[in-house]
Amino acid sequence: VQLQASGGGLVQAGGSLRLSCAASGRIFRPNGMGWYREAPGRQRELVASVSSGGITTYADFVKGRFTISRDNAKNTVSLQMNSLKPEDTAVYYCSFRRGGSRWPDYWGQGTQVTVSS
Q: What mean pLDDT comes out for the span 6-28?
């Protein structure tokens, strides 16, 4: 499975950004797609995920601000990020998890999100 992410960039605090990711290759269901982030000096952490069945999971620090969605027909996942804060600054990674896996099996190339104060 290959993941191609797009979006990201520089935005002021309170602004919005949208990340998108397309998966290609041998894709079977069930599966999970999501977004993780990694800030300097910190471990990679889950931001949000969505299963092929539509079950979503959000980290507490993004609840009410970020929305994850996916299109199973196109094998794409998007992350709408609103009310961005400087602490959201990080490299965001698209992920793909095969059914039965506990952790992501594949990662996208990462896209930088920078929120200025």
A: 96
